[in-house]
Design a protein that fits this description.
Elements: E1 10-14, H1 21-34, E2 39-43, H2 57-63, E3 68-72, E4 77-81, H3 91-96, E5 103-107, E6 116-120, E7 136-141, E8 154-157, H4 161-177
Parallel strand pairs: 1-5, 1-6, 2-5, 6-7, 7-8
Antiparallel strand pairs: 3-4
Helix pairs in contact: 1-4
Amino acid sequence: MQASMPAHPVLGVIGRSGSGKTTLLEYVVQQLAARGLRVNLVKHSHHDLALEPPQKDSARLRLAGAAEVMVASPYRYAIVHELRGAPEPTLAQQLARMGPADLTLVEGFKQDAIPKLEVFRVEVGQVPLYPHDVHVIAVASDSPAPDDLREGLVWLDLNAPNDVLGWLLQWHTDWLRK
């Protein structure tokens, strides 16, 4: 199944485990939603997903062989799709399943060729990703920018989340003007 990217901005948020990606995303999503933006989020996991206890009807029906199970309530719905050995869908395929949005943020999928913000903390003890990924357009870090920073790469203070938010809002505006 071929799928194209949506007609709205998609920004990846990448970084090593423990760098603060989810904390930053939580703040950013809250602030964007408060400004009236509809934000979708795709989070990649390397772990199996256990969304319901195995004794619940939806889990029992999924385990019985249903390809997809939708659990719906007056408050929200969730679709669980069993791959059953099929290849993991691409990011574009995942995005095609989502509803309309002003912006989609993607945590993970660091190999995909989408614009990315890297969250980098020296104390995590691993090398940054941006030197080897031309799709990283900004880095939010608690350390100063290196002297040999790639031209055009934006360096943001991770400890000033409003600055990161401001950059993201400007990036969003610039994307819409293209």
